[in-house]
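Q: Can I see a sequence and its folded structure?
A: Here is a first one.
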Amino acid sequence: MTRRFLLITITLVTVMTANCVIGNQEVTSTGDLESGEFKNLFPDKTYSEEDFDHQTIKFNKEYDVSELPLAISATRIIFDKKYVEARLYKTADTANEEGKTYAKSVTGPDGVVSGDSVMWKEKERDRRKCVPKAGRSEAGCDQVARYGGFLISGNLVLLCEGLGMVDAHNLCRKLIEQLNE
């Protein structure tokens, strides 16, 4: 009986270890998503605010873009029960240059979401979330980027909520696919 228990335990530990290793390999194999480098998904597409008039998209807030260089509009929406910030630019080139620079600054684990270094101050609180400090039970939290990543499609820059870049990109891709139906 003890020998059987030991054999079952060893087998389970081996299977669990193999699953962890395989799972980690799948996450790191996303290459382009992990590095944040990607191409404009639909470079010839020109989006407008009307494209977001869809039953699965709920408008949450509009932002003043006077301090966001070359942006036409910026809106926070709720899609698939997550926040997405949609920024429209006049052209795809503008989205790829200015839009990418500003989106990159507030997304992912290195996103700057508070303090003097925030590039665009308009409603900066919306781009961060409070995460409890590790190992502490008392009050207090770390301010981290709400948006795990961003994608560009045509003249549109989407900042998408997610636990990591892969989750955020999956949400962005799902929204872009829906906008292009």
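Q: Show me another, different protein.
A: A second, unrelated one:
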Amino acid sequence: MTEPTPMQAQQPPATQDSQPAAAPSAPTPAPKKKLPTAAVIAIAAAIGLVVGLAGGLGGMYLHATPIINQQKSDIQDLNTSLDSVKAQLADANEKLNPQEDPNDTGSNTDASGTGETAVSGGVEMKVLEAGEQPTISFDTCGDGCSNGQYGPKTPDANTKYWVAKVEVTNNTSSPMDITCSYPYEIVALNSKNQKYTPIKNLYQVEGNPECNAQLQPGLTSTVTYPFQVPLDAKMVAIAFRDVGDVYSGTGGEDNYSYIVTDPNYVVNR
């Protein structure tokens, strides 16, 4: 039997900001780059719209109890839209202000095997267990709602669940909403270095933090990440990256940190 080929972790090319040539009569400090005014106005308008809609839905609670599950579903969709805006703004801020990234130390650490800790910026993570599962325990309420009752959920046709149970420690300066926000990016990798994102509605997985539950700085939480992957996929690792906090102006990390779950594979940086 042929041994698996060591995994070659591929890093995204580092971005380079071009600087226009200038010849001032005397040296002057380089101005800090800022987001274009139009982009800031557009993002602010999008956030205002999302917050306004969420407030309107909340105000209807007393008069629409019979459809509260649908209301919650709508609010979750609005949260998802806001998270998308935050993620885009965070990426834009990181590209325009690379010199102002206090968390981007360039010293991210990897880990091999379960129980070993890897670090990306202000996020520490270790895999407690990982492997294939025929089903996952999922909230029976339906898409976008929660009733606290759980049952087995099967994967789609021609796919399987590969599930990683991880322990996350928040060493940033702000609370983290792990299941309904975007505190860090996490993906699973197969032996071909193909990346897979977790299933949606992580708060509906039994044992996971509730939506909008805040993991405070210095505290630790356990999170289960189910990934739906092809039947023939050989999953070998997870990768994660601290994306920073656009509200506080904290920059994120450019590169992934890896936790290898298959002893036959290694990360070569």
